[in-house]
Amino acid sequence: MRLAGVWIALFCLLGCEEPPVVKAPPETPAPAVSKQAPASLNRHDQRKIVVFGDSLTSGFGIGHNEAYPADLQALIDAAGYPYEVINAGVSGDTSAAGARRFDWVLEDRDVAAFVLALGGNDGLRGLPPSEMKKNLGTIIDGVEAQGIPVLLAGLGSDETADDRYIRNLLAVYAQLAEERDVTFMPNLLENVAGVASLNQSDGKHPNAAGARIVAENVWKYLKPMLQ
C-alpha cells in the first residue's frame, strides 16, 4: 500500500468535490461565533453531545479550544440549545481503538447525540476496509443500544477516488449509514480539505479557521437531530 498516496488522496483529493485545486478563502468570511458561555450557565446539568474521533476532532496542532467541537459548542450556545459538547477525539485513533473505548466515554453521561468521525487513520495505515466497517458498526450498535442517535461522518465520495483501496474505504460510510439507518454526513472536511489557507502547514489538519467550517458542516446535520 502506497501510504503517502493514500494520505494525499484522503486529505486532499477526496476532501474536494473537484480535483485538488487550492481555493481562495471568501473575501468576507463569516465572523466567528463567540465561545464565551453565559456566566450563569451550568454545564453539569446539560445533556451531552459526544464528538468521537481522531486528531481532526481532538484539535491536533491547535488545541481543544480551537478544535471544531469547541466551535460546535459555540454554535449550539448561539442557537439557544441546552447541550454540552464533549470532545472525545484522540490523535492517532483507528476504528479499532475507537471500538475499544467508546463505552467508557458514554459511561455515567446523559448523552443526547453521538458524532462518529473515525476512519482516516485506518486509511493511512492501509488497514482493511472490511475491518473498519466491522469496528464502526460495533460502535454504532453499542451507542444505539443505549438509545443514543448517531451522526456518522464520512471523508468524501468514493466516486471521486482513483485508487480502488480508497474507493472501498470511503464506500464503507454510506454502506453503514444505510444498513444501520443513521444520520449520514458524507464529508466531514467539505470545503476545508485541499484548501491551503484553512489547513495547518502539514496540509492535513484544519487550522482554527478551517475548524470553524468543519463545525458548521457538522451543525448542519446535527441540528435536525436535536429538534
Largest sheet: number of strands, sense, barrel closure? 5 strands, parallel
CATH topology: Rossmann fold
Mean pLDDT over the residues? 87
Q: Look at the helices and sheets and give the structural class.
A: alpha/beta
Shape: globular
Q: Tell me the number of helical segments per DSSP (H or I, 4 or more residues long).
A: 8
Helix share, percent: 40-55%
Q: Strands across the major sheet, in which order?
A: 2-1-3-4-5
**Alpha-carbon distance between the termini?**
43 Å
> So what's the CATH class?
Alpha Beta
Q: What percent strand?
A: 5-15%
Order of helices and strands: HEHHEHEHHEHEH
Alpha carbon gyration radius? 17 Å
- CATH 2nd-level architecture: 3-Layer(aba) Sandwich
Please, how many domains? 1
Short description:
The protein contains 8 helices and 5 strands.
Can you put this structure into words, describing what you see?
The chain has eight helices and five strands. Mean pLDDT is 87; it is low at 1-8 and 13-30. It has a five-stranded parallel sheet, with helices on both faces. It has one domain (3-19, 43-226): SGNH hydrolase (Rossmann fold), CATH 3.40.50. With 227 residues, it is α/β, with parallel strands linked by helices. It has helices spanning 3-11, 55-58, 68-78, 95-106, 120-124, 129-144, 164-180, 208-226, and strands at 47-53, 83-89, 111-117, 150-153, 183-185.
